[in-house]
Amino acid sequence: MSWQTGGMTNEASTVPQRLVAFLPNLRRFAISLCHSRELADDLVQAACERAILAADSFVPDTRFDAWMFRILRNLWIDHLRRVRTAGPQEDLDAARDVAIPSGETASHARMELLEVSVALQSLPHEQREVLVLVCVEELSYRDTAEVLSIPIGTVMSRLARARKNLSELTGISMGQKRSSDTKGGVA
């Protein structure tokens, strides 16, 4: 069941039931925003609390995922404002606790993943937000624009810059083919 079809617009599901199914996506987006698993967990928890308290404001037949991403992003913005007024905070993103089996393939995979992760984190946050929402969370440009409260054209330009910058940072050649040339599986 996909998020775009019955999964996230099913009126029979309650907000708490939808939240349980959506937690991995919400956490992934939170980590991409704040670079800290601990802070991401706090943001996700706060977003879930806010969503449950505001369940009456969720409009049936609309995208639940977009609604939740917006709540989470607003909480992140609130957090950033609090940090600016509170002063510097301690960095909690000191360790990466990803366990993978030993072996040459696993080592190379981990190095590549780390390289892409570092490159992703070095992107400007506006580009990173759009890239994660479109490419990882598979939101449409329109839904991404709605979550971020920006025009669709801005989503497209930020996404293009993010892809270009990410490919340059990781040494991945984008070639001549554009993603829109193969949209829908047809070249």
Question: What does this entry look like structurally?
Answer:
The protein is mainly α and about 190 residues long. It starts with a helix and ends in a 17-residue tail after the last helix. It folds into two domains: about 1-85, Rna Polymerase Sigma Factor, Chain: A (Orthogonal Bundle), CATH 1.10.1740; about 105-175, Arc Repressor Mutant, subunit A (Orthogonal Bundle), CATH 1.10.10.10. It has helices spanning about 5-10, 15-35, 35-55, 65-85, 105-120, 125-135, 140-150, 150-170. Helix content is about 65%, strand content about 0%. It is globular and about 50 Å long.
Task: Output the keywords.
Rna Polymerase Sigma Factor, Chain: A, mainly alpha, disordered C terminus, 2 domains, 67% helix, globular, Arc Repressor Mutant, subunit A, 8 helices, 187 residues
